[in-house]
Design a protein that fits this description.
There is one protein chain. The protein is mainly α. The longest helix has 31 residues. It starts with a helix and ends with a helix.
Length: 128
């Protein structure tokens, strides 16, 4: 898949998920929708954040590194966007359940950091 096609899919999907997120906010009453409404809210938020963070990260990496490491920029931007969206969505879900404490946030950040280090070490082994 070409980088242009991949980025167009991400842009289109991000726009669709932000529209879905706005529709969820405007049209679904969480008290009437129950668990399905809350699940739809967080799924839309997760994918909208992932796409937005990916696009911002990709543009910044493209400005810094140029087109020399294009596929590497795409891979790193996608991975970090997913992890950061997990962090934001998880903390918001914990807050909605009144379970958010500093300990939970620190554990979540440590867990995602360990996962990121795992991906980084796995990539460095694959190169050699």
């Amino acid at each position: 898949m070409s980088p242009l096609f991949y980025n167009l899919i991400i842009i289109f999907g991000t726009i669709i998920f932000w529209i879905g997120f706005a529709a969820t906010l405007a049209g679904i009453n969480p008290e009437q929708g129950g668990g399905a409404a809350v699940l739809l809210f967080f799924i839309n938020l997760f994918f909208a954040l992932t796409g937005t963070i990916y696009l911002i990260s990709y543009v910044i990496r493209l400005k810094i590194f140029g087109k020399s490491a294009l596929y590497r920029n795409i891979q790193v931007s996608t991975r970090q966007a997913g992890l950061f969206a997990i962090l934001i969505s998880s903390t918001l879900w914990l807050q909605s359940q009144r379970l958010l404490t500093w300990y939970n946030v620190i554990l979540l950040i440590l867990g995602l950091t360990v996962l990121e280090f795992f991906f980084i070490s796995r990539q460095s082994r694959a190169r050699y």
